[in-house]
């Protein structure tokens, strides 16, 4: 069975983006970027692969899922399939699938759809964002891969934008980078 992996950048105070969707407040440097691109290049938009010299095959996952707000970051500037190297699914009740033929627009319940998707043949599934979709899919998330940045946002999009629903996780690996980022990976406890 395929796993759903929530791989995302997060601030120390649990924000994946600012109140207006900002994500440019996360510090990066050349060494950190190089290491992450080598190991997690699947999570970069396809257009960056050639520019950065990342050559397929990529192996972390073969499908990416996201909500409307996350998808709109690219589509609003003409990038209709930001992850063309992956099967791209956008959960949305507001987008007309006919207007976005480069991706799969799914208007049905994301939990039921995800349960069926996890039963299909293939690699793991990357939950790209955002916080509202993550909260809806929380029962189906199998692993967390959190890039924890040494910054606080104060406000913005939470990691899981839902109601109180405690879930236990087991730390399976962690790695600290010189710029202060910690890549922490968890599985369900």
TrEMBL record:
Residue span, Bacterial bifunctional deaminase-reductase C-terminal domain: 4-183
Pfam families: RibD_C (PF01872)
Gene3D superfamilies the record matches: Dihydrofolate Reductase, subunit A
SUPFAM superfamilies the record matches: Dihydrofolate reductase-like
The organism's place on the tree of life at top rank: Bacteria
Alphabetical list of PANTHER family matching this protein: 2,5-DIAMINO-6-RIBOSYLAMINO-4(3H)-PYRIMIDINONE 5'-PHOSPHATE REDUCTASE, DIHYDROFOLATE REDUCTASE FAMILY PROTEIN (AFU_ORTHOLOGUE AFUA_8G06820)
Name under which the protein is recorded: Bacterial bifunctional deaminase-reductase C-terminal domain-containing protein
Organism this protein belongs to: Tsukamurella pseudospumae
């Amino acid at each position: 069975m395929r796993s759903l992996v929530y791989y995302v950048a997060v601030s120390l105070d649990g924000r994946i983006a600012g109140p207006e969707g900002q994500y440019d407040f996360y510090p990066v440097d050349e060494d950190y970027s190089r290491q992450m691109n080598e190991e997690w290049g699947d999570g970069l938009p396809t257009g960056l692969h050639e520019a950065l010299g990342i050559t397929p095959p990529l192996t972390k996952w073969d499908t990416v899922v996201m909500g409307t707000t996350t998808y709109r970051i690219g589509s609003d500037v003409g990038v209709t399939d930001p992850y063309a190297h992956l099967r791209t699914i956008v959960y949305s009740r507001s987008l007309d699938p006919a207007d976005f033929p480069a991706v799969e627009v799914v208007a049905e319940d994301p939990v039921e759809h995800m349960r069926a998707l996890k039963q299909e043949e293939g690699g793991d599934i990357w939950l790209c964002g955002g916080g509202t979709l993550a909260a809806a899919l929380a029962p189906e998330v199998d692993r967390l891969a959190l890039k924890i940045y040494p910054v606080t946002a104060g406000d913005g999009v939470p990691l899981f934008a839902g109601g109180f629903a405690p879930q236990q996780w087991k730390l399976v690996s962690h790695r600290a980078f010189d710029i202060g980022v910690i890549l922490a990976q968890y599985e369900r406890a």
